[in-house]
Design brief:
Elements lengths: L6 H14 E4 L3 E7 L3 H11 L3 E4 L6 E6 L2 H11 L6 H11 L15 H9 E10 L2 E13 L4 H9 L6 E3 L3 E6 L2 H13 L6 H16 L8 H21 L1
Antiparallel strand pairs: 1-2, 2-4, 3-4, 5-6, 6-8, 7-8
Helix pairs in contact: 1-5, 8-9
Amino acid sequence: MKKNTNNKSLDWFVGFSEGDGCWNKQNRFDITQHTADIQILYKIKTHLGFGKVTTSKTRPNESRYTVTKLEHLSILENLFKDRICTQHTMLRFNKFFNNKYLIKNKPNLNTGWLSGFIDAEGCFRIKIEEQNSNKNIKLIFEISQKTLDSKIIYNIRDLLHLKKNVYEDKTVTRLYLSGKQSRQKLIKYLDSYTLKTEKRIVYLKWKKANEIKNRGLHLTKRGKDGKEQIEKLKNHLNKWRRSI
């Protein structure tokens, strides 16, 4: 592994892999992304110093980072075993390596794990609702997992000091964040542990809308300008999301 591979980036990589990675039964580790975000796969390959990036011939919008060599899989084993935070990853990991590792780690705001997991599973939205001829602006962050692995969602909720904000049904558990204080806590974290995929574009537009709302620029006599800015950010955000 290359010398410049620091713990901050490795924690991000494990979090990202827990969202989008797969320990394959055929002695193969994969991370699959939309080809529009292939650059992150090349960055992972460069940072780790091994693996292969390919684009599907039958599905040109799908690209994949793959590790198959036993010596490199052994490096990944040592990298992952003390950083895994989700039950489903640990189960597949143990089955893959025929081992019995235990989860020793929880997500916290002092590592890049959560940033990687958000890159894989997080969603930033701007919602504008009409209320009595006024526009109510909501800035929403969501992250979800299958209910069988709901514990990680509650761990993230506790990290952000939320009391409720988790909605659970038979299949999916979802964290829903929109309050000012929780938004600021999330922004403070993501400004220190930056997103690395193209999702960062969405986050920065969401963050800009948050600044406009926090300063009340949509409520003043010239508030029309603030509202229009937020609407443009919302449209740009949605256009980007539809393109991938």
